[in-house]
Design a protein that fits this description.
This protein is an alpha/beta fold and about 80 residues long. Helices cover about 40% and strands about 25% of the residues.
Length: about 80
């Protein structure tokens, strides 16, 4: 799995694949105040990005990958 779920935090691993998108959406629906930790993430499949764009959860930690974070900042701001 590319995402580890805690009570109020979803921790993204290096590579978050398309298979993770449904679980992410389910978790965010069940945990509307849940936060996202992207610190270790270096690749996120577009399906997961779409979930983040629609639900707009709080990002607790940004990706340490500068290029990915620039892309995420742009995508999540629009």
């Amino acid at each position: 799995m590319g995402i580890e779920y805690k009570k109020a935090l979803a921790i993204f691993s290096e590579n978050v694949s398309v298979e993770d998108a449904e679980g992410l959406l389910d978790w965010l629906v069940k945990n509307p105040k849940g936060k996202i930790n992207l610190a270790a993430c270096t690749h996120i499949h577009a399906a997961n990005l779409q979930v983040l764009m629609v639900v707009k959860p709080t990002i607790a930690a940004e990706s340490k990958d500068e290029n990915l974070q620039k892309w995420l900042n742009w995508a999540l701001a629009n």
